[in-house]
Design a protein that fits this description.
- The structure is a single chain.
- With 206 residues, this protein is an alpha/beta fold.
- The protein has helices at 19-26, 34-37, 61-66, 72-82, 110-127, 137-144, 150-153, 173-176, 181-197, and strands at residues 45-46, 52-56, 93-96, 131-135, 158-160, 163-168.
- It is built from nine helices and six strands, in the order ααββααβαβααββαα.
- It has a six-stranded mixed sheet with strand order 1-3-2-4-6-5, sandwiched between helices.
- It is globular.
- The chain binds iron/sulfur cluster (SF4).
Length: 206
């Protein structure tokens, strides 16, 4: 399985690697210690040809139990926010930087991200979205290869290789930082405007 460089020079969609193939390679992954403590590996869910791919941090308790990303409170928040961009949950694909829940929801460790990130790169390569929405610092710093935080980077689009990248707050963070919610909402409206101004090309399967 080849590993993609996100900031590459590819403008054409590369060789198709299906999400099923990537999931098969992951199998019962034990490449980092989180494999020992998870209930379910949370691969990702959604439209395999999505124009917009959302990337979160890692599974929380509900996600770990159900094996799906963004169920529970953060998932409900996300569903509400999607409408501001003219999107429905079935339009998008959503995955996390790491596929297994860190115990007690601690932050993922650099070595865990390093072990897991090739799978996310392959998911991005397979879906080949137009826009990657990074929810929170971990996704933003991974995709944009930066040390800067999301508060500095949000509110505008960035470009990395083929992909337009929109960093914004993680919906779960707005539960504790309610003043971030209007900013997250503004970013979602900005995304909707971008999508309206850049309609899918004729012949694209979306
Ligand atoms: S977090 Fe990723 S690398 Fe670690 S065990 Fe889970 S799937 Fe494997």
């Amino acid at each position: 399985m080849g590993v993609m460089h996100i900031p590459g020079h590819e403008h054409q969609k590369p060789r198709e690697v299906t999400l099923e193939e990537i999931r098969d390679v992951l199998g019962n992954c034990q490449l980092c210690p989180l494999g020992q403590t998870r209930t379910n590996l949370v691969f990702g869910v959604g439209n395999p040809h999505a124009r917009v791919m959302f990337i979160g941090e890692g599974p929380g308790r509900n996600e770990d139990l159900q094996g799906e990303p963004f169920v529970g409170a953060a998932g409900q928040k996300l569903n509400g926010l999607l409408g501001l961009a003219g999107l429905r949950r079935e339009d998008i694909y959503i995955a996390n930087v790491i596929k297994c829940r860190p115990p007690s929801n601690r932050n993922p460790r650099p070595e865990e991200i390093e072990a897991c990130s090739p799978f996310l790169r392959e998911q991005i390569r397979s879906i080949w979205p137009d826009v990657i929405v990074c929810l929170g610092n971990f996704a933003t710093q991974f995709v944009l290869r930066t040390e800067q935080g999301v508060t500095k980077l949000r509110g505008r689009f960035h470009q990395t290789g083929h992909f337009v990248v929109m960093p914004t707050f993680h919906p779960a963070a707005t539960i504790y930082h309610q003043d971030w919610l209007p900013l997250l909402e503004a970013d979602m409206r900005m995304l909707g405007q971008w999508l309206a101004e850049h309609p899918a090309e004729a012949g694209e399967v979306r």
